[in-house]
Design brief:
The chain is of the alpha+beta class and 192 residues long. It has five helices and five strands. The strands form two sheets. A three-stranded antiparallel beta sheet has the order 1-4-5. It is elongated and about 60 Å long. The two termini are 38 Å apart.
Length: 192
């Protein structure tokens, strides 16, 4: 199961990853769940139990799509029944990953406190409006979408004029360089 923060999405998608005895990470494994084309690839720790030629994990740790890795925790195979890793408690990995997400947030460009407060109040009021007057909430959301598109375009042109590198833009937004550029491009694209 992958973890995602709403703000950073795929750029910081996290999983519990496997660690091999030499400290490296295994390549993705393909799991065939039946005959034919039903199968999938994974890098999650539970797939590395040594069965069917798959590598056997020596440990597990939080892994993030950005390349960050958490602390490695050993697997005591003598205590794992039938090589079934499902019962192993890996909840610390999620906590490690969440600390990483908080660190990413602290490195992003800060919003003015007054604006953050205003955004929180707006969300609370829109949530309440969606409960009591859903059509009015839809009208307000449409207004926000138009405003976001207009302001986003202005901001994207400003960021482009600042000639920021994709990496700098990504760091400021807490995204990968490619995802940050994609966000910029989305606002720069002409809308019909």
């Amino acid at each position: 199961m992958a973890w995602r923060s709403e703000e950073f999405g795929e750029s910081h998608e996290g999983i519990v990853g496997a660690v091999l005895a030499d400290g490296s990470e295994p390549k993705s494994v393909y799991l065939d769940v039946g005959s034919g084309s039903c199968g999938f690839e994974t890098r999650e720790w539970w797939a590395y139990n040594g069965w069917l030629g798959r590598p056997k994990a020596a440990g597990w740790r939080a892994s993030c799509a950005c390349g960050w890795r958490g602390e490695s925790h050993p697997i005591d195979w003598d205590r794992v029944e039938d090589h079934d890793l499902d019962d192993l408690d890996t909840s610390d990995a999620y906590d490690d990953w969440w600390e990483h997400i908080n660190a990413v947030e602290r490195r992003t460009v800060p919003l003015p406190e007054q604006l953050s407060d205003l955004m929180e109040q707006l969300e609370e009021r829109l949530d309440a409006l969606a409960d009591t007057a859903p059509v009015a909430a839809l009208k307000a959301v449409a207004m926000l979408e138009r405003m976001a598109g207009r302001v986003g375009k202005e901001a994207a042109y400003g960021a482009q004029a600042d000639d920021m590198s994709d990496e700098s833009l990504g760091n400021a937004l807490g995204l990968s360089a490619s995802m940050a550029q994609s966000r910029l491009d989305r606002y720069l694209r002409p809308h019909c």
